[in-house]
Amino acid sequence: MKLSVEHAATSQVLRAILTLSALAYVVAPGLAHAQPAPSVVRETVESITQETVLNHIAVLASDQLLGRDTPSEGLETAAAYLADLHRSYGLQPAGENGTFFQRYPFGFMGPDTDAAQATITGPDGTAEIRIGSDAFVDGGTEDSFDAALVYVDLSRGNPAPGSLTGDVAVFELSGSWGQSLWQSSSDQASVARAAGAVAIVHVLDSGFSSSVISQMTSTLAQPTWRLGGDALLPRLFVRRGALESALPRESRPWESGATAAGVSPIGGASLRASLPLDVLSYSTPPNVIAEIPGSDPELSREYIVLTAHFDHVGVGRPVAGDSIYNGADDNGSGTAALLEVARALASLPPTQRPRRSVLFAHVSGEEKGLLGSEWWVDHPTRPIGSVIANINTDMVGGDAHPDTVAVLGNEYSSLGPLIMRLSRERPELRLTTVSDMWPQENLFFRSDQFNFMRKEIPSLFVFAGLHDCYHRPCDDLDFVNTDKVARVARLLAYAVLEVAASNDRPQWNASGLTNVRRMTSGGG
Ligand SMILES: [Zn+2]
Fold first, then answer.
1. pLDDT tens for residues 496-516?
2. Cis omega (within 30 of 0) on the bond before 71?
3. Which of 30, 36, 422, 498 would you call most buried, defined as having the most Cβ atoms within 10 angstroms of its Cβ?
């Protein structure tokens, strides 16, 4: 579980904005009369036991893996363990190039603002952009570039994929500084990335505060762990006044409002820039993705994505002489649950297999800012438009409430009532499912499901609660209630089978979607 909701640079910004605290309520379990699952299904699901779960956590949380930091040798060993198991269970590789792995660019880096240079050339001449006073920079790129300016008016819809290839996307970014403006700029950036732009210019108000510009210049220059590649597209946040010496009014669509279309080239205007990165460490850590193809010719084109991050925080400050943060519950428990659901469902006879396809996405980089899931969602190895649901499992082994698990986001979509009904209909699981017991902590927006919600994919977060060993060396095998993890995994297996079999796709409800849009667009 991690604090931030966007990449590392964002967490630096957000840390200034977000906070934490404690408990609300429990719903009594109902005893309903379940449609008994075919015995073969029940037997298969019940092959998920305390022992099978324990075996996985024993490996993942062993000292040898040194707390599975991103990046690290321990993380690579864990990734190989996951891929080998999925292969042995008969699942299909769903990573890249026919493998179980999707590697993503990741590093400790930031814009090299001292070396940054930018010049806007337009019908009226040139404008030297002074970094630190006229503008601040985020991201960067190895090579300097000289590209045409193209204005994008999102109120007329998103530009088509590839329609900005080789261009600089220019957006108006009006308003005063804060989380919402930062999030709007991130939304603009992901639109520009999808359209193939080489860089982005966010045009700030003329009254935009100089102190914020200089503060952001130094803040963003601090290297952080963040995604590389196109996630680092150079972004220039420039006060509109600085552009006027190069661009006449008719070339300033954010003022003249004269936009014929959503995408309009700013005649004769270009940005010549060198916006290098300061890279202190670079790597390509793995996500591990495996697939059970659906059994139904039609529905198999749709995907249910189960996620669980398998990274943790590595080695840190010793506590009682122990400096290895084993992450047995966070998130060895969720990882073990996904492995067991995969093993069980893959062993079902063809007639009982899920009708829709199921992806098991073990993402890394979660502790560094939900990075592995961000990368997969923005660079999906299956069509993102065909992903109909995400169920994320993180920290389900805590023992504070031995027979209770929270289903965060249950009130937002049809997925919630489904999983809560299943737990009532299966008293043999001895599991009570409850709503968010920690609403003040915004937990539904703090783990990997967040990136699926950004794409408005109905999502749930299965979670058993924070505890005294959270991000401490004592989060090791002995701490985890492996019997509970096995029961949660069984519930997940039944939920996947039901979502996969239903003729209807899961749906957000109206208030749920409104909330999700507000929270994923930076609204508090
Ligand atoms: Zn976690």
1. 999 999 999 999 999 999 999
2. yes
3. 422
Distance 120 CA to ligand 1 centre (A): 44
For the record, the structure tokens of 516 come out as 């999700």
Rg, C-alpha atoms of the chain: 24
Is residue 113 a contact partner of residue 135, using CB atoms and an 8 Å limit? Answer: no
Helical H runs in 356-414? 371-378
How many angstroms does the Cα of residue 367 sit away from the middle of ligand 1? Answer: 7
**CA 199 to centroid of ligand 1, rounded, Å:** 33
User: Does residue 245 register a pLDDT over 60?
Assistant: yes
pTM: 0.87
Q: Is 88 exposed, middle or buried (0-12, 13-18, 19+ CB in 10 A)?
A: exposed
Residue 478 has pLDDT above 70, yes or no: yes
* Cis, bond preceding 331 (omega within 30 deg of 0): yes
Distance (Å) from CA 70 to ligand 1 centroid: 13
Task: Give the integer Cα–Cα distance in Å for 197 and 182.
Answer: 19
Q: What is the pLDDT of residues 280-322, one digit of tens each?
A: 999 999 999 999 999 999 999 999 999 999 999 999 999 999 9
Residue ranges and CATH numbers for the domains of the chain are: 5-103+284-519 (3.40.630.10), 108-280 (3.50.30.30)
Helix segments in 195-314, DSSP class H: 210-221, 253-256
What is the Cα 83 distance to its own chain's centre?
A: 21
